[in-house]
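Morning!

As promised:
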Amino acid sequence: MTPDLDARTKDFGREIFARLDRQGPVLFTRPWLEDKLMGLGMHDPALKVQLFRFVDTLPYLKEDTEVSRHLREYLGEAGDQLPRWVRRGMAWIPQRGLLSQLLAWQARSNAERMARKFIAGSNVAEAVQAVWRMRTRRLAFTIDLLGEATITEAEADHVQKQYLDLIRGLTHEVNAWPEEPIIDRDDRGPLPRVNVSVKLSALYSQFDPIDPEGTSRAVRRRLRPILALAKQTGAFVNFDMEQYSFKDTTLRIFREILTEPEFRDWPHVGIAIQAYLTDTEADLHQLLDWVKYERRCPVWIRLVKGAYWDYETVLAAQHGWPVPVFTQKWQSDANFEKLTEFLLANVEWLVPAFGSHNIRSIAHAMAVAEQLQVPPRRFEFQMLYGMADPIKEAIQSLGYRVRIYTPYGQLLPGMAYLVRRLLENSSNDSFLRQGFAEGLSEEVLLRNPCDLSLLLRPQPIEKPPMLATNGQTVTSPTSPKAPPDEHFQNEPLSDFSRATNRDQMAAALREVRSQFGRTYPVVIDNQSQPVAKTLDSLNPSRISERVGTVAVATVEQANAAVASCLRAFDAWRDTPVEERAAFLKRVAQQFRRRRFELAAWICLETGKPWRESDADVAEAIDFCEYYAIEMQKLGRPQHRDVPGEDNRYFYEPRGVAVVIAPWNFPLAILTGMTTAALVTGNTVVMKPAEQSAIVGAKLMECLQAAGLPPGVANFVPGVGEEIGPTLVQHPDVALIAFTGSLKVALMINEQAAKTPGGQNFVKKVIAEMGGKNAIIVDDDADLDEAIKGVVDSAFGYAGQKCSAGSRAIVLSGIYEQFLNRLVEATKSLTVAPADEPGCSVGPVIDAEARDRILKMIDIGRREARLVYQTDVGALATQGYFVGPTIFADVPETATIAQEEIFGPVLSVMRAQDLDDALRIANGVKYALTGACFSRSPTNLEKVKRKFRVGNLYINRKCTGALVDRQPFGGFKLSGIGSKAGGPDYLLQFLVPRTVTENQMRRGFAPEPDAVA
Ligand SMILES: Cc1cc2nc3c(=O)[nH]c(=O)nc-3n(C[C@H](O)[C@H](O)[C@H](O)COP(=O)(O)OP(=O)(O)OC[C@H]3O[C@@H](n4cnc5c(N)ncnc54)[C@H](O)[C@@H]3O)c2cc1C
């Protein structure tokens, strides 16, 4: 920036400040601090969090006593972190009676008053009144419709209708008002008076960047009538920008629909662009090229910094993805200025609307426009309703057009918007807070953000390992690997909002399809065995497709595999732990190298949708790396030496392990059990499920490519009933690791318990069995999240996970509301072949599974009320599809409430209160996973104590455990043994030994250090 420009920026800034009264109620429309909340929250982060949570929950609380209970609980949760006066005051919060009613009334009316500061009204008529009031102050408007998250197609239809009504209603009123040239015209002519802002994700319940094409199609279908009406009535439509993962799809839809013949010559459209994203500069260049060379008609760009900064940084950290936003405030400010210059230089094509309350950002735009001789009314400034009114007036008084982003809607959905605004304004970095609550000097506030870069030391957010900056997983086999004590980190899942990942997955599916029809043999001693009998492996999404043919191992081959393992055992046991760990890390590298290819095999052989197939490979990588690190820890002998006596405690492997894996996590579980056995020094007979034997063969390929010594793992696909008993009862087999059904697990356990003559050990059985997992929905739960959580848990991978949530236990007070939305959300799911990116529910694994599930549905019809079942139509003959099915009012003793179904069937059950819900949840023979959605800290504490399952999740779905973060496994009839991906898992594959050596010779003993 030239010194001149910076000086002019400061001139403009000072001019704006001169027109403000900084001592007055600048920040908000009405004397904000009288509410105290904001002022208190700003100085006490713990209090701020708890109060915001309380405000967020408030609209859901029906009873007065509930309001005081929640206030008490939220404040109580922060405990010692709260200021002393708040802690003392808590004792005075009334629990019931008149005072409690008074408190509830006060809390509600305060929250409502607060919300009304940011939300213009709850219906069109109120919104029109607000718009009229603004017009009398010569402020233009853009109206935004607040709503709950759109999780059903019915809700998306309703949103569309609301926009149509809104445009009609506003046009009717607003166009009849007398003209106000300062806002109704720019320097060239009239402007649309009616201006609406649209969030695209509200127009499609399955808005998902993994399927930009399908998402765009569905959104455009609902958007077209809105744009057509706007065009016809002379209104303006702006597309809001939401979270980063939606950005590319939003831009795509914007371009696609505005290139359609009906809209390509229509200039009254715009899109919000976020300066806090590092990608944005490139996006703007692309938009310019598109507008200039393809569309040839300008669009508006609302330049904002971005409203999801906290969300984006937390999400990136959780997933191990690159952070898409700048991490220091001055960088966002500086980028805003850079993009301001770009827009004003291209104002003929990209007409800017600067959405900011930051006087420096605003003044800079004024100075650039002046320098480029862009007339002040060619562009505009935009600000939020209820914020910084004097700044709006100051700018307007300087001759610029100011438009107010004016949300309207019901209080309940409005709370989320309110909390976003509160968070934004109370953040340390907020301009409004610094300028008006903290009273920083004008010179500081008007500083060039780039100057700050010199003052502040950079604090880069650490880039997660194994990631390239483009978000792709690094596949370099030479990446440095974890030294022994390095902290384990989960392999990031592929971010399918990125085109490069989608393209690679699509290419991998094509490549894998071209390899269909091959034959996969039994492999013993690293040698392929002659193939006699075979099984075809079909694509469950399209049964006309034969994925390949797999050899069926004979009993002789099973015996040969055990013999080979036995031969290899001694050498493998004596291989140093570091070498075995290094082998696992090489296997992980093979998986990384073949990441999308393996995901494609999983998708096509087992009918797993893209994201879940990718997660299967990521989990397999995690198992390798986690167990490698864990074994290196266990491999160090423990010493308990005393003078003259050396005591060493260490582990050694058990011997030959048989691994029998299921088809539902065809790579991850087979890899987990196999690598645990291998890294601990056992040799392995690997038996994949019949339905996923090709993925098993791929694992064998990876083991071999990583340098598997002959016989250390042998690949024995085949029919469980034929070779299972041979393997389990074999006298040379020391350990069986099994994951699968309860029935088979118990049978294996029984068979393995027999110790025939000649077998000098008792076999060890590790078994992960089923679940009948429940999700409790408390009556103050956030329904958007609870429904999404239940739907994902119940119908993700067509319910074929042992962790799947197959019972929703809902408290009476919220039951009907929950059920209605649940049914609508389920109706909105896309049942499709798993290889289609837009698939939300794919097929079940085979005909036998389909028939078994359908039989359970028949039983359910007799036991409970069938409220919904998706008709799968022609898919029924194309593949093994069962439509998501919901039963309501299911008695707790019903078969469908007690037995594992392993399909997309959900039982919804009513509970009188939380204790009742817990009793029902625990009242099954399994104890694997569970979840609870609640916003009551006390209830959640109770749930944590009393909901007895292996993996309990609070306010999230009950599937998707990650290695190390959520070690996985249950008890009761859900499992024998400790959790996979957890610190105790490997111990099961080992036997501990102690060696004690007497070092004393005739009264002389070496120093302990010398022998340690
Ligand atoms: C009319 C209008 C429409 C809007 N529409 C959208 C929209 O469609 N989509 C959307 O996302 N937002 C939208 N916003 C919200 C807007 O992004 C925020 O109000 C805005 O970021 C606040 O910026 P400011 O310039 O007023 O304040 P400032 O206080 O100068 O900036 C605050 C912003 O800086 C950024 N920031 C904060 N901390 C850091 C940090 N450590 N590192 C880097 N950056 C940081 C964040 O973006 C934060 O919001 C809109 C705002 C307006 C006024």
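Confidence is low (pLDDT under 50) at residues 26-34, 460-484.

Hope this helps with the figure draft.
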